[in-house]
Amino acid sequence: MMIQRIQTLYLLIIAALMAVTLFSGLAWFAGDAGEFGLYAFGLKTAEGELVQSTVYMGVLLALACALPLVTVFLFRRRLLQIRLCVVEMVLLLGSLVMEGVYYFLSWRVFSDLTFHTQGFKPAIVLPLVCLLFAYLAARAIFRDELLVRAADRIR
């Protein structure tokens, strides 16, 4: 693992932010029936009782958390790293879509209940921030590849 490379830091930041997204709440609903929270693996009551499973979103977020760690250790295969960064960006876009879909579905589950308030928690936007870092990592890896090719040409 080469921590001195900036793309390694970007990839580690992505893994950390996605771990925060994976283990913290994404949205909340409060009303007459009580409080509910949307998490990566389920829609839960305030007591922690599972109301609806969101395991597909959880798996997608877990993959988006693990892939940057795998990418860091493939530092000798820069072209593969670039491809994995693109896959990471697709996973992050998919996780944003899944978050929106499950928020809408959670809202629809409680359509017969009256909610006073509902909203998003800050962790729901972290995949968007990670998308920026994944782009920066891919760009830095590409620059490294160009630098290595230029050095090979000089020899």
Helix percent band: 55-70%
Quickly give the structural class. Answer: alpha+beta
Oligomer: single chain
CATH topology: Butyryl-CoA Dehydrogenase, subunit A, domain 3
What is the count of DSSP helices, taking H or I runs of 4+ residues? Answer: 4
InterPro entries: DUF4293 (IPR025635)
Transmembrane segments: 9-30, 50-75, 82-104, 124-142
Protein name: DUF4293 family protein
Keywords: Membrane, Transmembrane, Transmembrane helix
Kindly describe this structure.
With 155 residues, this protein is α+β, with helices and mostly antiparallel strands. The chain has one domain (6-145): Butyryl-CoA Dehydrogenase, subunit A, domain 3 (Up-down Bundle). Helices cover 63% and strands 16% of the residues. The chain is built from 4 helices and 5 strands. The chain has helices at 6-23, 55-72, 78-109, 126-154, and strands spanning 27-31, 34-39, 42-45, 50-53, 115-120. The chain has a 5-stranded antiparallel sheet. Strand 1 (27-31) and strand 2 form a beta hairpin. Helix 1 (6-23) packs antiparallel against helix 4 and helix 3 (78-109) packs antiparallel against helix 4 (126-154). The chain is elongated, with a radius of gyration of 19 Å. It starts with 5 loop residues before the first helix and ends with a helix. 34% of the residues are buried. The mean pLDDT is 88.
